[in-house]
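Please fill in the sequence for the structure shown.

STRUCTURE ENCODING:
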């Protein structure tokens, strides 16, 4: 992603969700929690997009 990280979003999260994010961060050797959250969001959006594209293909 080439855009600057200029937008800030603050959202409350459960302790278990934060722990899952931190686990992902450390297992992926991410430099920060913010980077891990951005990566997880991107992965989720990409997965949704792929699923939508798959569902638009004609079925034989």
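FILLED IN BY: designer on duty
SEQUENCE:
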């Amino acid at each position: 992603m080439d855009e600057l990280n200029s937008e800030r979003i603050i959202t409350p999260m459960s302790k278990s969700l934060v722990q899952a994010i931190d686990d992902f961060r450390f297992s992926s050797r991410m430099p920060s929690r913010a980077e891990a959250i951005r990566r997880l969001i991107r992965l989720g959006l990409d997965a949704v997009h792929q699923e939508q594209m798959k569902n638009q293909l004609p079925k034989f």
